[in-house]
Amino acid sequence: EDQVTQSPEALRLQEGESSSLNCSYTVSGLRGLFWYRQDPGKGPEFLFTLYSAGEEKEKERLKATLTKKESFLHITAPKPEDSATYLCAVQAIGRLGGGYNKLIFGAGTRLAVHP
Amino acid sequence: GAVVSQHPSRVICKSGTSVKIECRSLDFQATTMFWYRQFPKQSLMLMATSNEGSKATYEQGVEKDKFLINHASLTLSTLTVTSAHPEDSSFYICSAQHRTGYSYEQYFGPGTRLTVT
Question: Who among B2, B104, B108 is closest to A101 (CB)?
């Protein structure tokens, strides 16, 4: 069964204290791994898509990496405005090799950055 | 680019009435849209996959007759909660699939907070 596990469940950082969020996954065939940011009472905001092991993408203080079993979201020198829930999701290739578009979400990591 | 809107953002209705939520992709065409439900401090739960011009595919345990989905055009999908009850109160979020080459990225709307009294 396809599954996504995120850790830690919650993380509290001081401003400027770098850290990493983990997303472990098991999927029959990976089409893509997605990272989203969600603020309270809002829809998820797209951050990154990663497609193959070894791929890395960066955006401001965020950097996402991918291996065959997990992805990391590295946050460098975070600021209070980076406080949010970060969601990881995988999209699996269908059994017949065709498109299969569902996203399977992890439970998320709630990040709080304090000044 | 890749902006998705939802309307209304908040709605309060009385038990037994129906409520319609609209999801629009503003700057791209989406043959596939998705409807999610989210409970407080929990992750997103997929309710159904909506394909333009065909019937929606519902996830196990989601009542088709209660949550009616229509995807009449490439930029609009609607979710109607019929005969709403207090237990239907939740945060409903839609997403639209944006296909570019091999990529199938999903962009989410801002969500609709439904309260049934």
Answer: B104
